[in-house]
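Is iron/sulfur cluster placement plausible here? Inputs below.
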Amino acid sequence: MPSSFKTTCCYCGVGCGIVVHKDRQGRLTVEGDKDHPVNKGMLCSKGMNLHYTVMDTSDRLLYPEMRYSRNMPRQRVSWDQALERTAAVFSRIIEKHGPDAVAFYASGQCLTEEYYVVNKLIKGFIGSNNIDTNSRLCMSSAVAAYKMSLGEDAVPGTYDDIEQADCIFVAGANPAWCHPVLWRRIEAAKAANPKLRIIVSDPRITQSCAMADLHLQLHPGTDIVLHHAIGRLLIEQGKTDAAFIRQHTEGFAKYRDMVMQRSIAEAAIVCGIPETQLYEAAALIGESKGFMTMWTMGLNQSVVGVHKNLSLINLHLITGRIGKPGCGPFSLTGQPNAMGGREVGGLSNLLPAHRVLDNPAHRKEVQAFWGGRELSAKPGLTATQMFEAMNDGRLKAIWIMCSNPLVSLPDARFMEAALKKAKFVVVQEISNKPETLQYADVILPAAAWTEKEGTMTNAERRISYLKKINDAPGEALPDAEIICRFAQKMGYNGFDYTHPSEIYNEHCRLTAGTNIDISGLDYSRLREKRSIQWPYKAGKGTARLFEDHRFYTASGKAAIHSFDDQNNSEQTDGNFPLVLTTGRIRDQWHTMSKTGKVSKLKQHIASAFLEIHPEDARERGIRQNDIVEIFNGRGKVRVKAQLCTTIKQGVVFLPMHWGKILNSDLNRANNLTNNLVDPISKQPDLKFAAVQVVRFEKP
Ligand code: SF4
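Reply from A.M.:
I modeled the complex. Tokens:
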């Protein structure tokens, strides 16, 4: 019988609702869910083509595989054989070197239930906090900034604020390509309200700039200078909210003194934009009633990512534009469930329900609830630290779930060398394409989207239910089931769940009394409602936080932080005079293991390229479509040059999606990036590397 099912898109953090139609032959097609509050029927090119990624099983991993030494080929084995050997190797390493000699590296694409069980396993039973995810590359600077300023990792607003805003500042983001459905909502809001003003800050003229009333084409890395200068002008022009500052914030006097230290003229020079644009930006923000900011990797992926975030959030705190309709800082999430992962504590410094490791009471509560061993207070290794620890031998075994770190992590050749040194590598994956697989001692085939059920949380704190629609091919299993079977092989209790609902309900109970309390919710209610926004109280979700202007800090007041505008990124010099920035293209997702299968999605842009300003190209004798080599001390990339005036002179851009093609890694942008990280969030500086570019001559 043909049938239709409602579920949620598994790509970006917008979290669009999707209706999947299944015909008599089991073939799937998709359309946007008109009843879904997020997308109201719209889908972007990636979402529209999702069914192809599930229907084409030609690249799927079907059976567990294993090898006893790196020189031997892997062989098909049973689930019991694969998990028993893995349990034996993990146990041996833990016994000999301690629990911190093993680690799990997961993904913002995992479902909440999957995150929950792997976090419970390593923290509650193995006894290490070595779990981190590719969300470290995406959101960790925003998370730290929210905690420092608002007292909690909590996005204050809701997408419905878009239609009530009259000024939206998009900082270091290109939502027209990377969060397209959200951008269409902004386009529609602007069409309905001609007074809505859009400001975009970005070193490139992107598709998002087409609708901007003001584009601030700043030098890479100068965002704090920009935000401080706007803050100074808002103060000087009397556009701050004195009553809000007095009653609901702390730290304003210090902030005011700090932003006065750099003149507006000087700030304009540092940012590389006309001074008049700073006045214009301050006027648009100062005169608005509903002021929203939206940002992604341009702020987060930085060695000063937390300060960039805080400097933007400060603009809301000094103008009192937070916790009100059409107002608030709004970090856009790159991945579909980065937020759900944090809800269950799936990062190396977190515990479930946003509890923290360094609080002994929190550790005790979680231990008592799980009934496992004493929780370690020692922070676990973060994403890049895991690979550094493999390189120097501290970390012996790594289990990689649903992620392709050899394409997505910075300084990819270092990461690859580190993975080679690991004693034991487990890769849990759906596809046979990711580069990481060649280093796997054990491969565990996982179920994909529509082949399992569970929940995810999007960027506006909306928890959505995802339905199982078809069976996984071969012997592939849902990720949560794989982890639970392994935990049982390790001899641990508390992993005998018979359905994802039992995991989710356990997570709900563990949130009781926390700021993200969903203890009144359970899986069946979520399945019935399809989505709710946390916290869930008195039978209702919460669309907007801080409407009472009480923040989650100890004093109840939001903290305005002060810091200088220094950026400690890699320096350019005579050898490497250009700044490389990396990013996404419209129709590809992450490292292309799913979108790369869909030929329609290659029609937009089929191969990697370098954007370079015509002046920089002329100096180097480079013409349109020449093959160029981009290099620095870490590695090189060889792609076609695309000359364009949409990029700032002195800056070049590479898309981050491509990895190895026909055994050549010369398309991989992360050959060139460095593994400097923000000292607070540990998020890598993926948007800033010093490089040189030359025309490539065949030897
Ligand atoms: Fe999926 Fe994001 Fe596109 Fe929506 S905007 S369809 S969530 S990729």
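Short version: Residues 140-332 form a domain with the Dimethylsulfoxide Reductase; domain 2 fold (CATH 3.40.228.10).
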